[in-house]
Each structure stands twice: as C-alpha cells, then as structure tokens.
Amino acid sequence: MVVLIDGLLKFGQRKKIGIIPDCAGEEKRVGTRTVVVGHRPVSEADAYVAQKFCDNRIVSSKYTVWNFLPKNLFEQFRRIANFYFLIIFLVQVIVDTPTSPVTSGLPLFFVITVTAIKQGYEDWLRHRADNEVNKSNVFIIENAKQVQKESEKIKVGDIVEVKADETFPCDLIFLASSSTDGTCYVTTASLDGESNFKTHYAVRDTTVLCTDEAIDSLTATIECEQPQPDLYKFVGRIIMYRSNQEPVARSLGPENLLLKGATLKNTKKIYGVAVYTGMETKMALNYQGKSQKRSAVEKSINAFLIVYLCILLSKATVCTTLKYVWQSNPFNDEPWYNEKTKKERETFKVNGFVFHSVCSSVILSYICKWQGDFLHQGKVDFGPVEFVFTDKTGTLTENSMEFIECCIDGHKYKDCISEVDGYSQTDGPLKYYGKAEKSREELFLRALCLCHTVRIKQADQVDGLIGHPECKNTYISSSPDEIALVKGAEKYGFTFLGLENDFMKIRNQKNETEMYQLLHTLNFDPVRRRMSVIVRTTSGTLLLFCKGADSSIFPRVQQEEIQQTKVHVDRNAMDGYRTLCVAFKELTQKEYDRIDRQLNEAKMALQDREEKMAKVFEDTEADMHLIGATAVEDRLQEQSAETIEALHAAGMKVWVLTGDKMETAKSTCYACRLFQTSTELLELTARVVGESERKEDRLHELLMDYHKRLIQDVPKPRGSLKRSWTLSQDYGLIIDGSTLSLILNPSQDSSSSHYKNIFLQICLKCTAVLCCRMAPLQKAQIVRMVKNTKGSPITLSVGDGANDVSMILEAHVGIGIKGKEGRQAARNSDYAVPKFKHLRKLLLAHGHLYYVRIAHLVQYFFYKNLCFILPQFLYQFFCGFSQQPLYDAAYLTMYNICFTSLPILAYRAHVTTRCVFQVFGNWTFGTIVFTVLVFTVTLKLALDTRFWTWMNHFVIWGSLAFYVFFSFFWGGVIWPFLKQQRMYFVFAHMLTSVSTWLAIILLIFISLFPEILLIVLKSIKERSHQVRNKMKYCTVFLQRPLLLSTR
C-alpha cells in the first residue's frame, strides 16, 4: 500500500505539467516534473498547485495481515494436487463414503498449514526488512534546523542531510557537501554491482551552501524527467532565484543524482533535495518482486496426477457400472438379512472405491510437495539446466585490476623507469629498438596522471600532501582500471596527488609538484568508448588528453603514428589484457572558447541532451596525436574459466549479463574462455547501430544479416559427422542495454515488430552471449525472454550484488554468491555459494544426483500407491461391488505417513515393479494383502539402494518393524473411541496360521523375483565385461615385446 503525499509545484509563468502521477510505477511518464526545493515558492505572489507524489515507503513484501489468508490459499490451491485433494475431501464430507474424510483431510490440512507458516514467516522477514528501511532516521533541513524524521516521511522537495557511510534514503539532487570542491564519493554495489567509488558533483552555484543555515536560504526549482528505471541516465536543470537578480539555470545530469541504495563514502556529509521517492526511485523501479517458483518436476507431478485421476475415475466407473449390473438381480441386491430402505433405493451412489482408493494418494502430494518445498527446493531443476546467466563483476572476476605494461611510441615498458635512465624493450621491428624520447615518456605519464576521474582518500588526516610524501593515499574511482593506470604511472615515477579547487596536482620523477587546472571532463560513454580531459598548465598552455579503445582512438589520430603502437595492442589483446590507447592534442584559446561555449549549451538542453553533447565531443576529439597504449589485467576468480568450459562441455549455454562497459566485459569473456579466439563475434551495440533517427532501420538490417548468416545460410551437414563438425563456426553475440531496449520496445511506427523473435533465434544459435550495460530490470527481461521460449528451457541465474536480484528471482534456479557487494543476492536466491567455481560441482555433481533422485522418487510414489489401490479394485469383484473396504481405516491413514515414507528419505536409485496378491478372506485377507504390500515396496527399495549407510538400515528395517509393532498394538487393544472393533486381535490371529506365513513369504518372493533376476543378470554381465577388458589388456601387453623385436 502506497500513500500519496503532497509536494509543491510552482507554476507561475512557467509551463504547467500535464499530468498528476499515480502511485508507484503506474504514472504516465509524460513531460517533466517540477520540484520546489525546500517547499519554498519563488515568490509569494506566484500561485502554486500542490502536486501529489508517492511517499518514501519501500514495499517488497508479498502479503499483508488482511490478504494473507485468502491470497496464500489461492496460490496453494492453484496447484493441481492441492485442489484435487480438496475436492476429494469435500466429496467425502458430503457423500456417504466407506472411509472417513479425516483420512484425506488431515494430511491436506497439514500440508497447507505448514506451507502457509513457512511462506508467512518468509514474508514477515521481508516486512521486517522493509520496516528497518522505512523507519530509519534521517535528517531534514527545515527552517535552518535539522529535524529528525523517519525515512518513509520524506517528501519530494525536502532537503536531506546524509552523513558518511549512510545510505541515501531516496533519489537526491546533490546540492553541497563538506568538501570545498563540491564533490562526494559513493558506492553503488547494491544497484549495479560495482564496489568502486564513484565521484558525484554538486551544482556549481550551491557548493558554498555547506551549512544548515546556508542551504535553507536556497530558493530554486528543479525541472527533471519523470521517473524511469535507467540507472545511468538523468536529464534535468535547476533554476536558482536571487533577489534583484536574473534567475540562473544550471544543467543536471547523472553526475548530480545520488541514487537510493547507494552509500556515501569518504565525505563527512552532503545536502541533497529529494526528486524521486519510494517506489518511484530508480532502485524500486528496477526491483522485481519475489514470484512463486515452480520446478519442472512439480509440473510433471501435476501431469502424473491427472493421469492418476483418470485411472481412478475409470476404475470407479467400471466398479459402479458392475455394481448396478450385480444389483439388477434381486437375489444379489437384497438378501433377507440386509433389505434396503426406500430412501436407499431412490439414492444413486457412486461406488465408494474411488474415495477410499484416493486416500492412498493423498499423502503422495503431501510427501512430494513437502520434500520439494523443504528439502529439495531449487535442486530439482539443477539437473536439466540449459541456460546459465551470470554476472561479471564480483562473480567471474575478483574486480582487481593490475597494471602490466605500457607502450610509448612503439616501445614496450614493462619494468620501472629510473629517474635518469628509463628501461624499455621492444617486440616490434628493429627500427623501434631502444626507448622513446624523454619528453614523450613524460608526456605519456602525465596523460595517465591527468586523464581519469580518480580521487584520493587520505589514510591520515593531514594538511597537504606535499609535505608528507611518505603518507600513502588510497585511490578511489568508478572504474578499477583507472586506478590501475594511475598506479602504473606512479610505478614509473609520476604520482597523482589529488584534485583541489579544480586544480590537479602531480609529482614528477624529479619530485617536483606540477599543477594543472581541470577545465572540462568529457566522460566515457559506450558509444564513444573513450574519455578526455581539457587542462591548462601553469604557463597557460591548453591540452586535451584522451584515452580509449584502439578502435575509437586510431581513426582520430595521425595515421602514420598507428602502426608502431598497433603491434603491441594486438599482442596484448591476444594475451587477454585490457588495452587502452592514449592520445593528446594542444588547443588554442580560440578553439577552447568555442568548445566551452558548445559544451555549456549542450548541457543546458532538456531534450536530446546526449545527442548534442556527443556531437561536441566528436568535434573536440579529432586530429589528435597518438602517444602510446597500456595493458591492464582484470584478475579472474579462481577456476572460473575451467567452470565455464565444464558447463559448455555439459551442453549448457552461458550468457554474461553485466552493467559494465563493453570493452571490459569483452576482455573478461575472452579471459574466462566464454569467447574463443576462433569465435566470430556479432555485435548489436549503440556503436554499430548508431544514434541517428533511423537507427531502427539499421538495427533491422543487422538482425536480418545475422539471421541469414546463422540460420538461413547454414549448410546442411553432409558426409561424416566429424567432417561437418570441423567445418562448423562458433558465433558469439554482444548486445548492450540501449539496443536491447530497441528490440524489446520498438517504436510505434516501426515496421519491424518481430525484432524480438529474430533476436531470440540469433541468440539461441550462438554458443555464448554477452549483454553489457544492462540495467537490473533488463537482466530479468533477458532471463524471462529465454525462459518463455519454445520448450520452456530451464534457466539458472548467478550473481553477487543487489543488481542481480531481479534476474535471480526470474530464473528457475537462483544462485547467490557471498561476495564483497553485500548479501542481497544471497538472501533472495535459492542457494548461496562462496565462489563461482562451486557452480561446477553444484550443477554437474549434486544437481545431477538430486534430479535423478527426485525423478525416481515421484515414480516410486506412484508405483507404490498404484500397488496400494490395485488389490482394493480387484477385491470389488469378490464382494459384489458393495463398497466394502479391503483395508482398515488406520492402515489407510498410516500407509504413506509411517509405513512407507521414511525409507524414501534415504533413497538412492530408481524403482519400478508390480505388485501381486492372492485372495484369502475378509479383514484377515485385507491385512495379509496390506502386509505383503508394505514388505514388497520396502524391500524393492532396499534392492535398488546402491549406497548403504546406517540411516538406510535404520529407516528401512525400522519401518518394517514399526508396521509389525503398530499392527499388534492397534489390534491388541479395545479402543473406546471406535464404534467398531473390527481389527481386534486380527493381526495376531493371522500370524498363528502356517498357511498365512507361507502365503506372505511366497507372494513377496514372487513380486521381487523379476527384480532379483535382473540384478543377477546385470552383475554377471558386468563381471564378464571386466574379464574381457582384462584379457584384452594382457594380450596387448604380451604382444609389445614381439612388436619391438620385429622393428
């Protein structure tokens, strides 16, 4: 339940918003929303209208106190087994049947109650977790004072103060911080899985408002887009009003938005204004509620139950028909001692066989469902897994980057450069032998120290960095490879000392401090695949440094400079290293003024901001000069490559779904052997699709081209299987989040509405798929798309962060890794493992064994229950179809609960056999049949058991002993609560007859003889096979000296 609260929307001379949004996730996201900072209108004379927004409560629970009972019962009775036995129970209550409704109602009630308690407890834990978040204390700035409130009471427009190591309670626009430069550092591990620090920037004009009084004096409005789930996009602007001055407008982007769920790091405090709250936050929009997972085995049980029901109905129909045929003879129908009343003659009764035979199968549902829910949940689907979806960061890798080497003007530098004489080596042609010029070395290292978004967290609180060169600082950044590059430059003598008041400080090889004014940062994006900075030296020189992927840098530098560096880049890529090229460009003041003006204009745009900024970036990053390249290693988790190879060998397809950059993810896929060197990669990314207005046409062309190559043009295999296999080509697919959005949500005027089907066919034909720049919700969409394909393949998702929760919940089996990014994935998964390598044993060993076991368990239960009802069916032919039960009611109830249920807990092999019986007499006859039945099905299980432990011995022989004890006890006491004592002394009297003993032993032996004979024949065959192999080996061994002598 979400309660709407009032925010304030200032209209005045500004354009009014066309909608009033509903509660979470249901509003029509049209146009923009306007937020009044601090709920202070710009002018008292201006009219304003209250706009309703969702409150800040997060609801992840499934039930409430009021809807738990009906909703839970509805979900449970959606299962065919539960609904079927509910109908049987009601029929037994309404219709006069030979057996008590308790025999079917009690087990069903037990199953429903225990399941409801379990699910209720799990939802109570979710309620408690929600309350911890919603009831947590936050500080709101009101009237220049801090007011403590509960998190759920935050309104859109409130100014919130967040302190170090606290989690942001909602989506905030960053206004000011304790840092004088207006920056703060956050970790977003619970959102996108990245544990690295990200730098966010306050609005330029509000950075000085770093006290409660100052921030409360701010008068401003914010215009921004309506809530949408993309974590990496945000468009807005803030308009600040000052007395007797013109309003000042500043652009707002993702770097100004602090997301709910992120944690503030290395900053004492920040001030922010709430723009999205509660279920409208980006984190909530990416959350997918926990669904009721149903295993493939459970679905097959439903099919079995339908068949079983048909068998029961057919037997009941036969018995009922024969009953009335029998009763058509008045001498058979009404003997003189049992004449029918008038009411009985007028009443049509269905033969009671169906009801008391059904009792035997009630516990089938109970046992299978109970074991599936409490003992084997998730594991039953491990065996037939076809698709494995895995995260990258923290799952396949350790998220630990290491600088390996660099290349400057074609020369490879792999060891430290001394202050005077640099050491280098080259693996290129001889003309590149030696080392680069000193000035080029220093220019390259300066580029590494300046072209990044790394910030410094000081280990000790000291004033200044220069005076304490021995003090070690911690580098923090949103990208771990940036930290590796800065550390690599430090290894070669250039140290980054930090950013202070827009000035970047570095210490060179001569231990001198250099200052550079940071003018602009052209951030990395997946389309450009590069980033740049524009800095001004102390002498006034304007420099642009750029680093990025080779395919992005080479077209923008002088062509004669490429070859000497390309040799090293290609070799490093073959070694599995992540490579980046570095270039620079000197700007004139006139060029910089033009770039500065264009950048500011593009940043202020609310519409098409990204396209306008991309055009400015494209014009700026041109005609550069190539300096060199770097190689960084992203360390994989132990045995992750071997695990993926094993999964591929087992016939599973592995897809990597990550929010990381394409280059990073691609390198990791090569390192973990998801992509082989022979794999031909097909790319569906924003880089190849483009950003033009007709990008959907380009996407359609690519899809049709790939579809033709993979499906239409594949030649039919001819000749030998080996020849066709060696000629086959492995394909891999790479797709990013923006292109996936085009495929799943094409525009209304698009003529290619079948994008999704073509894309899915291409994916299924590829040996591996990489999905990069994925939002959490998109990960779940990918899993759902594959899960709903023809054949309904079993899917498994594995991840370690909160951003993986959606896909973990969506897959048939969810695996959480207990990593560095919290425990959200582990809490929401079916199973949790410490490392990715454990997935190999979990799937290929435990998964296989559990799947075989649960499959055989289902077959065994149907086998023993069919054996149970078959004597009752045949007995009807000997009792005139008079609804006379063969078994006592106690035996009906205890058969599955006690007599035959415990041995299956130690079950180790499959069960198939048939049950036979003979006629003996009334209740004694029924007891004999039941005794034969219990011993036969239990000993059959013992014959199929391959691994004997003390538990097997205890439950198998203990069950038989318990049956004998119960029979003596049940028939040896006169029970006062029973109207009829029909079983009194029956069992004890039965065992006094020698013929009874002979009949029981003979029937058990005859029933098990085929199984014993099969075991003996298999044993003889295996031994003969071993003897032949041994003789063959001896023959080859004896012939070796003869072969050597002939040579």
From TrEMBL:
Mg(2+) binds at D391, T393, D800, D804. Residues 826-907, 919-1019 form the P-type ATPase C-terminal domain. Its EC number is 7.6.2.1. Residues 585-612 form a coiled coil. Residues 50-104 form the P-type ATPase N-terminal domain. It catalyses: ATP + H2O + phospholipidSide 1 = ADP + phosphate + phospholipidSide 2; a 1,2-diacyl-sn-glycero-3-phospho-L-serine(out) + ATP + H2O = a 1,2-diacyl-sn-glycero-3-phospho-L-serine(in) + ADP + phosphate + H(+); a 1,2-diacyl-sn-glycero-3-phosphoethanolamine(out) + ATP + H2O = a 1,2-diacyl-sn-glycero-3-phosphoethanolamine(in) + ADP + phosphate + H(+). Keywords: ATP-binding, Cell membrane, Coiled coil, Endoplasmic reticulum, Endosome, Lipid transport, Magnesium, Membrane, Metal-binding, Nucleotide-binding, Phosphoprotein, Translocase, Transmembrane, Transmembrane helix, Transport. Pfam families: Cation_ATPase, E1-E2_ATPase, PhoLip_ATPase_C, PhoLip_ATPase_N. It comes from the Eukaryota. Signal peptide: none annotated. The active site is at D391 (4-aspartylphosphate intermediate). One of its GO terms (biological process) is phospholipid translocation. It is a multi-pass membrane protein. It is found in: Cell membrane; Early endosome; Endoplasmic reticulum membrane; Membrane. Residues 135-264 form the P-type ATPase A domain. GO terms for molecular function: ATP binding; ATP hydrolysis activity; ATPase-coupled intramembrane lipid transporter activity; magnesium ion binding. Its cofactor is Mg(2+). ATP binds at D391, K392, T393, E482, F524, K547, R578, T658, G659, D660, R773, K779, N803, D804. The chain crosses the membrane at residues 923-942, 954-977. The keyword Translocase applies. GO terms for cellular component: early endosome; endoplasmic reticulum membrane; plasma membrane; recycling endosome. NCBIfam families: ATPase-Plipid, ATPase_P-type. Belongs to the cation transport ATPase (P-type) (TC 3.A.3) family. Type IV subfamily. This is Phospholipid-transporting ATPase. It comes from Chrysolophus pictus (Golden pheasant).
